[in-house]
Amino acid sequence: MAQNEVRVGREQLKDFTREVFIRTGMPARDAETEATVLVWANLRGVDSHGVLRIPFYVEEVDGGYMNPKPNIQVVQETAATMVIEADLAFGPVVTTFAMDQAIGKAKEAGIGWVFIRNTSHQGAMGYYSLMAAEKGMAGIAFVCTPPGMAPHGARVAGVDNSPITIAAPAKRHRPLLLDMATSVAAGGKIDLAIDKGIPIPEGWALDKEGKVTTDPRQVAALLPFGGPKGSGLAIMLECLSSLIINKPLLEPVLLGKEKQHGHQTQNSVVAAINIGAFTDVDGYREHIDNLIDGLKALPKAGGFSEIFVPGEPENRTYDDRFRNGIPLPEGTVSRLRTVAERFKVKMPSGL
Amino acid sequence: MAQNEVRVGREQLKDFTREVFIRTGMPARDAETEATVLVWANLRGVDSHGVLRIPFYVEEVDGGYMNPKPNIQVVQETAATMVIEADLAFGPVVTTFAMDQAIGKAKEAGIGWVFIRNTSHQGAMGYYSLMAAEKGMAGIAFVCTPPGMAPHGARVAGVDNSPITIAAPAKRHRPLLLDMATSVAAGGKIDLAIDKGIPIPEGWALDKEGKVTTDPRQVAALLPFGGPKGSGLAIMLECLSSLIINKPLLEPVLLGKEKQHGHQTQNSVVAAINIGAFTDVDGYREHIDNLIDGLKALPKAGGFSEIFVPGEPENRTYDDRFRNGIPLPEGTVSRLRTVAERFKVKMPSGL
Fold this sequence. Notes:
The structure is a homodimer of 351-residue chains. Chain A has 351 residues and is α+β, with helices and mostly antiparallel strands. The first copy, chain A, has 11 helices and 11 strands. The first copy, chain A, has helices spanning 10-23, 28-43, 54-63, 91-109, 126-134, 187-196, 228-240, 251-254, 281-296, 312-324, 330-343; strands at 5-8, 73-77, 81-85, 111-119, 138-144, 164-168, 176-180, 205-206, 221-222, 266-273, 326-329. At the A-B interface, strand 4, strand 7, helix 7 and helix 9 of A face strand 4, strand 7, helix 7 and helix 9 of B.
């Protein structure tokens, strides 16, 4: 743990978060969902998607870009699909609802595929695919937002870094959970580096001149992983989500019809596959266990003492932080204090 | 064009390919499908998935690992999904059938998601997602095979490099078509380097000692792109396909129950999303056009004279080769000649 970090209990942090959002006008149940998803990210060590986002969310509510009391509506439906209008809901509020719908559709149709239009920042997407895994299904979720990543060959942003996540249930082991962006590093890691006052590695991002930068404050565009692969995947995910629900997020900025304004309007897809419609779920879980055991037992490459399966490093962090509290950098604590003062919410004990 | 390559007309190459497969016992219509998919790959410059594979396929038929007269059966079905037992069919034969089924399901259910069990090498997967795009739908396809790629942190193969492809229809432009492996380079590119007698770049693959090699003949395991990202995606695609249809391909090798034998048993998913169920297809196509135009007009990064969208470089190669013929390296020509002699099929004119 770094010198400039303090640890805070998960329940205290969740209570604080819920109280802040209630004071932005959000119903208590939705505030609970929002707090759960943010603190879950912190517990897993994905601090870039945790409570560090609270001050930004509050500003977004002020500006009318995030809606604490949205009118969430199912606007289209088939046997296996659904389109949900989010009305700028906080991401976790509409996305947990959407994944529940996907799971319901999958029960009957084998797969449930749900589009979410006009949501706001969704937090750590792994939470939603994990919801499916916890019901014995496979879960998929991905996101599109306005441009924040340079497509391969460009020196300015033109695509999103479209996080994508896939989960599958195990038996002895915890579910496999892949949660990755199509950029080399998630956007929130830039914010975290700012809060920690540390530089970012070369190759993560470009500045506004299109030059590679290591100063997180100068970042104008993320870089895609694998060049044309990350870039191409990001382009196609926009085609599979935003464009199908007629809400393009890249085109308006690319064609100069809209400025890139920094507000996080998002479209998304969450999907569930009903494993039990195809095979014995218990047998499936055992195969996942065997796969995990087999992968971890492979001979290690030089410099590696262990082979990790998707989600495993985050599970270890979870266990540590669940017991010992969540470390927060001073930058984050100080920005949370400003929010606490504004809304007259007591800071979590220890902070 | 390299000195040691000759060009052959697409029709001549297709006729040759069809005739060879008819002589392995395949019905003419299936041989036509197989030839179409292989030559399509060559036309697009994806030579690693083109006619270079013919000698291997012939050997696989000899060994009973590819079935020229399969009993393809639909074994399970829901409103939106289907499981197809391929009976070791040549990949293109069952996969074109499967994508037709996915398109049919999508018409009613919004999405069609079809699992293929026990197929053999499927060629260039982009062909199948493009089938959906040609019907005004979005297409997705991916593959799982026994281990051929080292998971992040391992020095031997433990996962597959699971190619994944996504297509979307445009209006003025040709469809967007992403077709990528989760390895740094597709496995067929190793074969192509052998046929061309050239080294491979560092970072593509490991030899059997687990050391990075540039000799394509020494390759024992491919390397994943983006470290844990490519590796994690490959693991999860096995969970989304093979394990759901109860036909694990990684586990038996990982647990030592099966030797990695080099025969290309594959499972696969092909899916179609019915754009017209959600929005006006013509409007969708225009949005894709605008997206393409917008991306291509972005300021270029240093060293780039053009920004390419997914599928665009291959389309240019296609146009050239459609007019001017397909160049084949001498290694490939010589191996095709052996096949021609065996089956008493005339080599394509010019070869």
